[in-house]
From TrEMBL:
<dbReference type="InterPro" id="IPR043128">
    <property type="entry name" value="Rev_trsase/Diguanyl_cyclase"/>
</dbReference>
<dbReference type="InterPro" id="IPR000160">
    <property type="entry name" value="GGDEF_dom"/>
</dbReference>
<feature type="domain" description="GGDEF">
    <location>
        <begin position="425"/>
        <end position="556"/>
    </location>
</feature>
<feature type="transmembrane region" description="Helical">
    <location>
        <begin position="292"/>
        <end position="311"/>
    </location>
</feature>
<dbReference type="GO" id="GO:0005886">
    <property type="term" value="C:plasma membrane"/>
</dbReference>
<keyword id="KW-0812">Transmembrane</keyword>
<keyword id="KW-1133">Transmembrane helix</keyword>
<dbReference type="InterPro" id="IPR029787">
    <property type="entry name" value="Nucleotide_cyclase"/>
</dbReference>
<dbReference type="GO" id="GO:1902201">
    <property type="term" value="P:negative regulation of bacterial-type flagellum-dependent cell motility"/>
</dbReference>
<dbReference type="Pfam" id="PF00990">
    <property type="entry name" value="GGDEF"/>
</dbReference>
<dbReference type="GO" id="GO:0052621">
    <property type="term" value="F:diguanylate cyclase activity"/>
</dbReference>
<dbReference type="GO" id="GO:0043709">
    <property type="term" value="P:cell adhesion involved in single-species biofilm formation"/>
</dbReference>
<protein>
    <recommendedName>
        <fullName>diguanylate cyclase</fullName>
        <ecNumber>2.7.7.65</ecNumber>
    </recommendedName>
</protein>
<keyword id="KW-0472">Membrane</keyword>
<dbReference type="InterPro" id="IPR050469">
    <property type="entry name" value="Diguanylate_Cyclase"/>
</dbReference>
Length: 560
């Protein structure tokens, strides 16, 4: 299509395309760098936020753990296994100062609560609770759980969510270091989640930022709506990472995750995960790509328009010359160019006018030369066709016997077999072997042996119809294809005719030579070519086994 455009259009297209490609390459290079930078900013922001949330939670747990440890070390907290008189007030005061504490209590060494905030659970047996078991030895922080007994005594902020807590426990020792009890604090799980949510800005909802707390196996602990689900398969060997991950809902999210920093008393194995949908996170990138594409397209259009205007100015003298050249192709080849042209183009105009003078005579000479050339081409083509025909005959003819060779037989057998399949007319196949031919070669030499083969071929051809097909199959073997043979008896009669013709012929100087024949009658519609040849060969071997100089026609298989 481009070759049919005018010079002005070509120049405009070429210049516009060149400008577009240059801008495209520049835009891709600069855009790739910018996109990579923006993607890094998005990921760095998520990683910074999720790391900040992890640190906030780790520091908060460490501070609460330190507070409980310090409180458990207060002298005379338990006197002779009994709480001191103002212990109740101390626990209530601590809870009033730190609202993240849902419950503070002290249990005796046998597991009964001696004192607690607001006297909740006082007297209850907590010896089977993990915080009591582990808190007897050292400061211990337990994983999030529901406290059934405590939740019945405390109001809920949200009816749809059960109260969940984190236990922090420490041993209570006397001045001699002996265990006198266990101090435990139930910390509100909502305090942990508020710490995590605090790293989100006011636009978190519009940006679809969502924070998760997961255990070491990837099971969601927060938010409550997805508690217990495995939303994301975490990699245990990654403590801090950010990238695009596929979540359980089948969508891809830019996901930042950070492992909760562990301490001497805290081995929760939590992961703080912050995610944002890929299409939302990278929405500014798509807008940037669209803007770059629009700018590139507009600049390319402006470049094409400028190129078209310049080409229009430069094209005027070229158009005059083009018109003159077009006239050279007409019947009146005489051309006159009267316009004033630049020196370079004027020389071209003079050459065109000079060429027009000689064009008419040259055209006449060219027509005569074309006629002569066409005649020679016709003669050469005819000679080539005759040569090809001769080569084809030579390629399909046995060089010694001048009958068809193996290649011609294979081709003819395929044709006859296909014709029989279409028409339902049977055909006969005879495989012929010259008996004891090796003795002829050994006794008289190969030259006499060759003459015997030539004579055998001549006798076979002379004994058959013009429509039958004789070929040398290889060595001293020949094959015969007989068209329109109706019965095996008819095929056997032809075979006997050929055998008798060879047997009665005198081969100088050998004398008498005999042949063995094996054949089969073929119905092409239900027979396979390999089966046909194998059946005829089998009949030939049977004729030789019976003593040679005889004919055997194989019975057609029942499957035919």
């Amino acid at each position: 299509m481009f070759k049919h455009l005018s010079f002005r259009a070509r120049m405009a297209c070429a210049f516009g395309l060149l400008t577009f490609l240059v801008l495209l390459v520049a835009s891709v290079a600069w855009g790739s760098w910018t996109i990579h930078l923006l993607e890094s900013q998005v990921r760095d922001e998520l990683q910074a936020r999720v790391h900040a949330a992890s640190e906030l939670i780790a520091e908060g747990l460490r501070d609460r753990s330190s507070e409980i440890t310090d409180l458990s070390r207060m002298p005379d907290m338990l006197l002779n296994g009994a709480p001191e008189p103002d212990l109740q007030e101390r626990l209530d005061a601590k809870r009033a100062l730190k609202m993240e504490y849902a419950w503070l209590g002290v249990a005796s060494t046998d597991g009964h609560v001696l004192a607690a905030t607001r006297q909740m659970l006082v007297g209850k047996d907590v010896s089977q609770h993990d915080w009591f078991k582990f808190g007897k030895t050292s400061t211990w922080i337990g994983d999030v759980h529901e406290a059934v007994l405590l939740s019945r005594l405390m109001p809920r902020n949200q009816e749809s969510e059960p109260l969940r807590f984190i236990d922090i426990a420490a041993p209570v020792r006397d001045t001699t270091g002996a265990i006198r009890g266990v101090l435990c604090a139930h910390v509100h799980w909502s305090w942990i989640t508020r710490l995590a949510e605090s790293i989100l800005q006011a636009d978190a909802e519009s940006r679809q930022l969502r924070i998760y707390i997961m255990d070491r196996h990837g099971v969601t602990l927060y938010p409550f709506a997805e508690t217990g689900a495995t939303s994301l398969r975490l990699q245990a060997n990654i403590s801090n990472s950010v990238g695009e991950l596929m979540w359980a809902d089948g969508k891809r999210y830019v996901t930042g995750q950070a492992a909760l920093r562990e301490s001497e008393n805290q081995h929760l194995g939590w992961r703080i995960v912050l995610r944002q949908p890929v299409d939302v996170a990278y929405a500014p990138l798509r807008a940037f790509v669209k803007e770059m594409a629009a700018i590139t397209f507009i600049v390319a259009l402006l470049a094409a328009w400028l190129a078209y205007w310049i080409a229009s100015y430069l094209n005027t003298p070229i158009a005059i010359l083009a018109t003159a050249v077009d006239r050279l192709g007409g019947e009146n080849a005489h051309v006159m160019i009267a316009a004033h042209l630049p020196p370079e183009l004027q020389r071209l105009a003079d050459a065109i006018q000079a060429a027009s003078v000689n064009l008419t005579a040259s055209r006449r000479d060219l027509l005569e030369a074309n006629e002569l050339l066409e005649q020679r081409v016709h003669e050469r083509t005819r000679a080539l066709a005759l040569a090809n025909e001769a080569l084809t005959r030579q390629a399909m003819t046995d060089g010694l016997t001048r009958v068809a060779n193996r290649r011609a037989f294979d081709q003819k057998l395929t044709e006859v077999h296909a014709l029989s399949a279409r028409t339902g007319v049977a055909y006969g196949l005879l495989v012929i072997d010259t008996d004891l031919f090796k003795r002829v070669n050994d006794q008289y030499g190969h030259q006499i042996g060759d003459s015997v083969l030539v004579a055998v071929a001549e006798q076979l051809v002379g004994s058959l119809r013009a429509t039958d097909f004789v070929a040398r199959y290889g060595g001293e073997e020949f094959v015969v294809l007989l068209y329109s043979v109706k019965t095996a008896e008819e095929l056997l009669a032809v075979a006997e005719k050929l055998r008798c013709a060879i047997e009665q012929f005198t081969f100088d100087p050998v004398g008498r030579v005999t042949i063995s024949l094996g054949g089969c009658l073929v119905q092409g519609a239900s027979a396979d070519l390999r089966q046909v040849i194998q059946l005829a060969d089998g009949a030939l071997y049977e004729a030789k086994r019976q003593g040679r100089n005889r004919c055997v026609i194989a019975a057609s298989p029942t499957s035919w």
